[in-house]
């Protein structure tokens, strides 16, 4: 670390310097030092043994124009401030709310965006000892504590989120590998809950709580092996993507409680997951140092990205920089029915949805539209990477048009519904498939949209993805992802189980993390079966590296001294945070205040 700091001061190699700006095709992103948030003393936090710093946002529709609020945790502390974006940060000595916990630490948090007002916000906070607290940092109230006696789960809370569209339901995941569905209106009970099996499938089971009166948890999910590290709801709230320490991505139909599809990391646990704005793609990252792109419709890996030198801690799509391109009509050999089979229609626009900007500007003609997805990742290597997922990766069997108009969605003034996107329905590539229709696709790349980050290998997977069986119900996933929530605090003394060394359980060279279940825990053992990594490599679950395209990052920059734990894309800026407790705002091109 001393070397890195010397380098930042000009005493080391350029590659070790901490960057304060970077350039993409849109222009220059600049770090705004006056917009930085941290603990009031601005002293770097000694993060040894502490849980990752997390950030949540909410807009309270304040009439003054300062409606954004930020919540972040550093060690045992939780802070709540007005967030001013690219402008000068709020006075750090005057937080709206600050809470210091004894015996436990906040691990994650989420705001309810449906109920937030200038007078009241509902913030869920998960803790290292397993409890979940509901607080209102505006009213400075603590309303409820869930799993208070740790009768439901004694392990660390890894992720907490409100169920999309609900004012009362929320979902909590734990290091035990279990997830629980709660209702804020219900109590937890004074004895350990008893469960009844509701549904069981491959490496997962779902139980209901048996009791005379309705009590929390409403449901218990046991998923995979080891910790369930993170989950994310699809933009329409119908599906749930979970990533676990056993290296698996599992995607469920949330309401039907059914498994939609799975994917396996190249090795090690998966730590983070996110959805594309239209719900068609999922990106996961983890201990294999890769970002992996998985098609929801085809249930297969379509690309991997290599740029990080250590574990990937956060992945996120940039809904504001995703690009729409209109191309001239393409020659299509086949029947009208075949053509229609390859068209997936975007659904209705959701009110106030930034993601609806994916829609085509002019939907009056039938010209195909291609979408370039932008996503980012940060990792324990202190680096920020930005990636473009382009049509030569998404639809390798289709020739690209030679003439194209490039439209940057950031500049779109009004979103429209009814856009169409050509999607890959065959999902089948063979060796030597570099000639014929695919040759002009490579030669006719638009100069307006650099594609040097996309490096498809000549060798392609020989396995066929049977998406006709997998893609049922997938076409309806559209619209916007619920904005990232902001968290709240608590002033109670909560008992800790001294799981400070949980991070030491991560072994880089082991594909199967095994953290949880005692032999007496029959519910956990019900679905836990050892899976051999060697049997998944080279299959659709985990294609070999040479069998899928390898993405290179658009940019890969060292931006912090300590490991990065936050990446959030906002309209005027992107927000990062490191384990030292510094929350940084990077102005988008043209958004630097005068």
Q: Tell me the number of helical segments per DSSP (H or I, 4 or more residues long).
A: 7
Strand order of the largest sheet: 11-12-13-16-15-14
Compute the CA-based radius of gyration.
Answer: 23 Å
CATH superfamily of the domain at 38-176 and 178-223: YVTN repeat-like/Quinoprotein amine dehydrogenase
Strand content: 25-35%
> Any guess at the CATH architecture of the domain at 38-176 and 178-223?
7 Propeller
Helix-and-strand structural type = mainly beta
The chain-level mean pLDDT equals 76
Largest sheet: 6 strands, antiparallel
Given the C-alpha coordinates, what overall shape results? Answer: globular
- What is the CATH class of the domain at 38-176 and 178-223? Mainly Beta
Helix content: under 10%
| First-to-last CA distance | 35 Å
Residue windows where pLDDT falls under 50 for at least 5 positions: 1-12, 327-357, 359-368, 400-529
| Strands, total number | 37
What would the CATH topology of the domain at 38-176 and 178-223 be? Answer: Methylamine Dehydrogenase, Chain H
């Amino acid at each position: 670390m001393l070397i890195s700091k010397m380098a930042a001061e000009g005493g080391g190699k350029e590659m070790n310097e901490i960057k304060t700006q970077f350039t993409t095709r849109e222009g220059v992103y600049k770090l705004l030092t006056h917009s930085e948030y941290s603990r009031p003393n601005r002293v770097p936090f000694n993060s040894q043994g502490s849980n990752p710093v997390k950030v949540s946002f909410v807009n309270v529709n304040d009439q003054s124009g300062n409606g954004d609020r930020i919540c972040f945790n550093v060690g045992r502390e939780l802070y709540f401030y007005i967030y001013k974006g690219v402008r000068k940060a709020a006075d750090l000595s005057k937080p709206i709310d600050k809470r210091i916990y004894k015996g436990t630490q906040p691990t994650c948090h989420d705001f309810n965006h449906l109920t937030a007002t200038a007078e009241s916000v509902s913030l869920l906070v998960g803790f290292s000892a397993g409890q979940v607290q509901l607080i209102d940092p505006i009213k400075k109230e603590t309303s409820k504590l869930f799993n208070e006696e740790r009768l439901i789960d004694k392990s660390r809370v890894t992720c907490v989120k409100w169920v999309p569209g609900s004012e009362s339901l929320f979902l909590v995941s734990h290091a035990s590998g279990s997830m629980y569905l709660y209702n804020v209106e219900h109590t937890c009970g004074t004895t350990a809950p008893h469960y009844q099996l509701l549904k069981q499938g491959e490496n997962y089971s779902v139980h209901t709580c048996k009791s005379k009166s309705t009590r929390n948890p409403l449901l218990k999910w046991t998923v995979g092996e080891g910790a369930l590290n993170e989950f994310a709801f699809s933009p329409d709230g119908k599906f749930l993507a979970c990533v676990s320490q056993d290296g698996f991505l599992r995607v469920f139909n949330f309401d039907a409680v059914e498994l939609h599809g799975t994917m396996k990391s190249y090795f090690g646990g998966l730590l983070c997951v996110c959805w594309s704005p239209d719900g068609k793609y999922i990106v996961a990252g983890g201990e294999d140092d890769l970002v992996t792109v998985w098609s929801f419709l085809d249930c297969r890996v379509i690309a991997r990205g290599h740029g990080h030198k250590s574990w990937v801690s956060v992945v996120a799509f940039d809904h504001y920089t995703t690009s729409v391109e209109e191309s001239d009509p393409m020659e299509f050999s086949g029947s009208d029915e075949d053509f229609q089979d390859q068209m997936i229609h975007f659904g209705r626009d959701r009110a106030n949805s930034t993601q609806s900007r994916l829609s085509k500007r002019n939907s009056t003609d039938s010209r195909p539209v291609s979408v370039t997805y932008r996503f980012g990742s940060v990792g324990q290597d202190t680096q920020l990477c930005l990636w473009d997922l382009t049509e030569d990766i998404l639809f390798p069997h289709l020739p690209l048009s030679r003439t194209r108009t490039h439209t940057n969605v950031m500049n779109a003034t009004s979103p429209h519904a009814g856009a169409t996107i050509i999607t890959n329905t065959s999902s089948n590539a063979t060796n030597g498939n570099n000639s014929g229709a695919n040759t002009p696709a490579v030669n006719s790349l638009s100069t307006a949209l650099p594609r040097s980050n996309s490096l498809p290998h000549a060798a392609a997977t020989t396995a066929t993805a049977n998406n006709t069986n997998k893609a049922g119900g997938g076409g309806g996933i559209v619209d916007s992802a619920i904005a990232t929530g902001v968290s709240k605090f608590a002033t109670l003394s909560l008992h800790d189980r001294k799981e400070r060394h949980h991070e030491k359980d991560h072994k880089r060279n082991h594909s199967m993390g095994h953290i949880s279940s005692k032999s007496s825990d029959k519910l956990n053992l019900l679905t836990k079966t050892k899976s051999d990594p060697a049997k998944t490599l080279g299959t659709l679950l985990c294609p070999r590296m040479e069998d899928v395209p390898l993405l290179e990052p658009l940019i890969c920059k060292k931006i912090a001294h300590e490991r990065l734990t936050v990446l959030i894309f906002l309209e005027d800026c992107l927000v990062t945070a490191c384990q030292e407790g510094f929350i940084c705002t990077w102005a988008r091109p043209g958004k630097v205040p005068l």
